């Protein structure tokens, strides 16, 4: 297997990291096996490795007949390749931090369950007030409190609309998080503390 890897590197004559080699060999060999082959080739002096940040880059050892300019070109190519890999790695790290911050902010927001409880409490209070209003109207024998009752019913409708709006907003936010969340919907809801049947 080491011979196969070496022939490929000699043919391409350019730097690669371990993941690229595994991929370019069409995943015929596992990453661990390829890594062992690379270590063997390095120890035999057939290839050399250079470490750039968190990345190891491999390149075949050039013939001594190569001119200095060619060796410098290869070294520059190694550096450019390593810089590109490191840049992509840092970009992924930044994206992960953004998603983690977003998830953390979601945990501090009011949940659908809490909004539902608040709605139930408000509805109960409105019902009590409406019953008292009906009793007063019946006792007085007048319709002077009709407007107050209408406003109370309007307030109930407003609270109901607000609950529906918050539920829809929360559902949209959760769907957005799920696009980048590594787990399932159930796992996300359990982590945040939301019951699945409430969201649905």
Mean pLDDT: 78
- As laid out across the biggest beta sheet, the strand order is 1-3-2
Ends: how far apart? 53 Å
CATH architecture of the largest domain: Orthogonal Bundle
CATH homologous superfamily classification of the largest domain:
Winged helix-like DNA-binding domain superfamily/Winged helix DNA-binding domain
Q: What structural class do the secondary elements suggest?
A: mainly alpha
Task: Enter the CATH topology name of the largest domain.
Answer: Arc Repressor Mutant, subunit A
Number of separate strands? 3
**Order of helix and strand elements from N to C terminus:** HEHHEEHHHHH
Point out poorly predicted stretches. none
Given this structure, which CATH class of the largest domain is correct?
Mainly Alpha
The value of Rg in angstroms is 33 Å
Q: What percentage of the residues does DSSP assign to strands (E)?
A: 5-15%
What best-fitting shape do the alpha-carbon axes yield?
rod-shaped
Percent range for helical residues? Answer: over 70%
Total helices: the number is 8
Provide the number of structural domains: 4
Q: Major sheet, described briefly?
A: 3 strands, antiparallel
Family: Belongs to the HOP2 family.
Main location: nucleus
Domain Homologous-pairing protein 2 winged helix: 3-59
Domain Leucine zipper with capping helix: 147-195
